[in-house]
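Project standup — Tuesday

K.O.: blocked on the structure for the chain from last sprint. Re-posting the sequence here as requested.
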Amino acid sequence: MPISRRQLAASLMTATHIADRHAIAAFIADPATQSAPNPFSQTSAGAVRQVWRQRAAEFRSFDIASAGLVDLLAT
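H.V.: unblocked you, prediction finished:
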């Protein structure tokens, strides 16, 4: 059963270990934010983690703001 945007934003607000949770929750709740299909639905968690660690390095090298990305990858 899919989770609604409102539920996801509310759940994120309870994650006090994520410093940027307010900004991330606002982004999720924004009607302009569109979700994309999961390209990793048949991929192991380890492979996905490796892909996103590489993306995090790319974000830093291209100076792309990534609110809470480190916290999200650590969980």
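K.O.: great, moving the ticket to review. Residues 13 and 22 are 7 Å apart (CA to CA). The mean pLDDT is 80.
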